[in-house]
Amino acid sequence: MTDLLVKLFVKNWQDAANPTVRTRYGQFAGIVGIACNVALSLAKGAIGLVAGSVSIVADAVNNLSDAASNIVSLLGFKLASKPADPGHPYGHGRFEYLSGLVVAILVAAVGIELLQSSVDKIMNPTPTEFSAALVAVLVLSMLVKLWMMAFNRRIGRRISSETLEATAVDSRNDVVATGAVLASAVVSALTGYDLDGWAGLAVGAFIIWSSIGLIRDTVNPLLGTAPDPEFVEHVRAKIMSYPGVLGTHDLMVHDYGPGRQFASAHVEMAVETDPMESHDTLDNIEQDFKDEDGLIITLHYDPIVTNDPHVQDLRNWIDRRVRAIDPRCSIHDLRTVPGPTHTNVIFDCVRPTDLALSPDELRRRVEAIVKEKVPDAVCKITVDESYVSSEQ
Fold first, then answer.
1. Which residues contact 291 (CB under 8 A, 6 or more apart)?
2. How far apart are CA 272 and CA 74, in angstroms?
3. Which of 49, 60, 163, 256 registers the highest number of CB atoms within 10 A of its CB?
4. Half-sphere exposure of 50 (CA within 13 A, CB side)
5. Distance in angstroms (rounded) separating the CA atoms of residues 161 and 25
6. Is the dihedral of CA 213, 214, 220, 223 positive or negative?
7. What are 269's strand-pairing partners?
8. Alpha helices in the chain (DSSP H)
């Protein structure tokens, strides 16, 4: 059903990677969510007031807050689609992350409110009426929310949206909450023990616990996370596939919202090759990333001496020994400057951010390794922090 609705209401739905189409997806999901949640809120609110059930009324308020979350999501997609301007040269894509954070906070607020109302019901119990209409509206609500969970998850994954993924989790929480309300109503009707307040308390605690995970997931991209290892490997493999490329390192990726990623990397090429030829190759790589991946990447040319076997052997030997410290460590840009009394050995060493050794400790370890091979070496080692989750 989701695909049918998308085909009917999302223009050019096949091109989900297109920023304009992606915005249409997000706005359509927001409108569907508003319509469903308002309808459920009205139905459950009426039944809850008639039955005198605090948990059903709270569930209705929860649906109303979900509608508000859908409005926030709708605005988030709209604002995120604004083009770049002089004050925001990288665009406004992070508005979508902000809207996801607001949705997560609203989910937490609903959980806290439900806890408060449930405690009040436990301290001051009032009878809850049980009826076929109550069961019908709660079962219908669970079915609608199950569909909404699948709907938002499917679209969220299609367009890589943290906001819609959060909305899908919220819909799942609603299924659990409504199921608990229904179960407590049935048990209360059969046994005479009013479990309405206790059910609301359990549901409120579950919603708060779930909201903590949502907040963490939406805050992470705002703080800046390491790129996905598969993405890192894709970028590395693509760069290495071009003629003349000997190696690549120091990849950095900056995320300014879904579909708005910028990157930079160093590319090693033979110093003996005409610099104009190497520069042309780098230009082609940058343009291909833009055209084929939608990624704006800036590449730095690192000239490497390839016709000196001694330097090549030294580089390979040091690199193997450094990787023995930690497989994620590596060296690059090695060059030597022999002199009458000593030899300058100059290179960069990549250090994973979670390595137990500090930068200074790693530098001393690597310097000791170099002196095993070149006793008169004066090392000039620059320790580079790794900004990706997987360094090849």
1. none
2. 55
3. 163
4. 12
5. 10
6. negative
7. 245, 303
8. 2-9, 19-51, 54-80, 94-123, 132-158, 162-191, 196-223, 229-240, 275-293, 309-325, 359-373
Assigned token pair, 96: 């979508």
Contacts of 184 (CB under 8 A, 6+ apart): 55, 195, 196, 198, 199
Structure tokens, 1:
């059903």
Those residues whose C-beta lies under 8 Å from the C-beta of residue 384, and which sit 6 or more positions away, are 249, 250, 348, 349, 350, 351
pLDDT of 64 reads 76
Say how many C-beta atoms besides its own lie within 10 A of residue 375's C-beta. Answer: 9
Measured on CA atoms in the order 161, 166, 171, 176, is the torsion positive or negative?
positive
Give the tokens for residue 357.
């050794």
* Residue range 183-212, pLDDT digits in tens: 877 887 777 777 777 877 877 787 788 778
Amino acid at 131: S
313 CB-near residues (< 8 Å, 6+ apart): none
3-state secondary structure of 288: helix
Amino acid found at 102: V
In this structure, are strands 245-255 and 343-351 parallel, antiparallel, or unpaired? unpaired
The residue type found at 260 is R
- Give the DSSP H/E element, type plus range, for residue 351: strand 343-351
Q: At what angle do helices 196-223 and 54-80 cross, to 10 degrees?
A: 20
Looking at residue 284, its pLDDT comes to: 96
Contact 139, 109 (CB under 8 A): no
What is the spatial distance between Cα 163 and Cα 152, in angstroms, rounded to a whole number?
9
Bridge partners (DSSP) of residue 348 are 332, 382
pLDDT tens figures, 215-229:
887 787 777 777 788
238 in Cβ contact with 187 (< 8 Å): no
Distance CA(352)–CA(43), nearest Å, equals: 55
- Hey, CA dihedral for 314, 317, 323, 324, is it positive or negative? negative
Nearest to 74 by CA among 13, 161, 6: 161
State pLDDT tens for residues 281-293: 999 999 999 988 8
Residues in the chain: 392
